[in-house]
Amino acid sequence: MTVFICYILNSSEIYESLTKIEGMWSITIFIIIRISFTLGMTLYSFRKWFKREDLHYMDIHFLFGLFFLGLMFGKSLDLLYKLTYFTADKETLLILLKFRYILIIITVAPLILIGIDNYLLSKSLHYSKLADDNYRNRIDLMIITLVIIIESLIVSLALNLTILRMILIFIHIPSLIVIVYIFYHAHKKKNIFQIKPLIVATAFFIDLILYAISIMINPLRRKQIGFSATFTIFAELVDLCIIIIIFWGYYAESNIKSN
User: Fold this and answer.
1) What is the largest CA-CA distance in the chain?
2) Rounded to whole angstroms, how far apart are CA atoms 47 and 45?
3) What single DSSP character describes residue 132?
4) Element holding 26 (H helix, E strand)
5) What is the phi/psi pair of residue 192, to 5°?
6) Helix (H/G/I), strand (E/B), else coil: 49
7) Going from the N-terminus, what domains does the chain have, and what CATH number goes with each?
8) Distance between CA atoms of 233 and 22, rounded to whole angstroms?
9) pLDDT (tens digit, 9 = 90+) per residue, 37-68?
10) Residue 148: which pLDDT band, with cuts at 50, 70 and 90?
């Protein structure tokens, strides 16, 4: 609903962008297609979760469902940012980008939660209380909630777009590193049997490398190319491929287990 309201409030800027900026319609159509793909992944994950006899918020299907759902809404906000980049004032863009970055923080939280839970479970041999699922899950939620609140506050306090983008770098890169470690460690220890963690870890590692490269070349690209619909669509296509690989790592094993 919040995303829909944002679109309504910026409808005039969106219309101006679509009618005056070359290539914006192509970008919009491609991103809508990408959102549709992610919607399918979201519905599949939650459908797998609802089929479980015991519905639990720490279930792998529920957490991946939240992750794909966050990607879907995040990309909707990202599309809005792109549609208003050339037509809205800087204050509006700053607000939109803050919402977008906070949503990124919330989106990766379910996957980090998997890592926190696995780490605490590994310590249950030394701390018997951690063997209790309810006790451990309460700690999981306390930790991830604290992380979300702190990072969201940092984002919300950014004074301009430059500072905000720097904040994202210092938040996003460590988050990707943690997620890569979580799923690679799960692969080595064979902790998560419902998915193929090595595939998921590989996808996020590729994402991490590409994100680091984009940070380094982005100033040069802006200077040499500027705005390019072709480049934007190519970047979106690469990002979609990474999401498909993540879903493949989730789908392949969970689909086998259900057959």
Assistant:
1) 64
2) 5
3) S
4) helix 24-50
5) -110, 105
6) helix
7) 2-258 (1.20.1070)
8) 13
9) 999 999 999 998 988 877 788 888 999 999 99
10) very high
